[in-house]
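Hey,
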Amino acid sequence: MNPGPLAVALTAAALYELGRRKLGGGRWRREGGWRAEAFYAGLVALVVATQPPLDGLADRSFSAHMVQHLLLQMVAPPLLVLGAPWLPVWRMLPTGGRHWLGRWLACSPGAAPLRLLARTLGRPSAAWLLFAGAIALSHLPAIFDFALREPLFHEADHALFIALGLLFWSRALDSPPFRARLSPPQAVVFFSTAIAAESLLALAILQARSPLYAAEGHRLSDQQLGGAVMFEPASLPLLIALLWSLRRWLSAAQPSAVAGSSRRPPRGRRPGTRSEARMHTARNASDRRKAST
């Protein structure tokens, strides 16, 4: 058993649940139920990825290692982002501590480097490059084999996957009180290029004619199975996000098109309107003359 990630998951669940009970109205009342389910599902994915039997099997099997990476990069982070844990955890701090920390982060000169770092990492381009770059670098044979030999480095590798995953997915998904930084068209590009980068790496592993990694038990057939896991199941969350963003884009464009087609033409340009009015007036005058005679 790996006690570190398990303790983090249990602590996060407790803080989230206690803080959630302190949140009342507004958007949280409408969305709190399904967001809580998403958050707890993300914690379950984190625990499954870092505990036996998968954690031990990942040290011996490349395909199992890819399943572990799938959970840590593509399943747990988007679920945690959708769970929006920021307000519940923030509410667990004492009121005075929240006020002091908020003022320090927002106004203190000592926190200026943190604000600069947050603005830099908060850019979608930076988040994309860090996320995709970490995935690519972690699969270089030298780094991959070193992580399997050094448990501490391996644990840091997993923590980095979670952190960069949260950063990546929060650029395109609302996580109250934070809004997504990307519009639907931008999110389509964001996710489609991530799918392309993931697929290229998977194809490189699939097309290898010999084992790339020196770890015991990593056979060529198992390596190809791991590449297939990376190519298809690992890209599925990105594909779902891409289709969801595309649907939002089309939904936003549809009302304007409907509104444009339903506009009436200007009164003076309606075909036949003036001529019909003149004919009606002439008929009324003719009827009045006949009635007078």
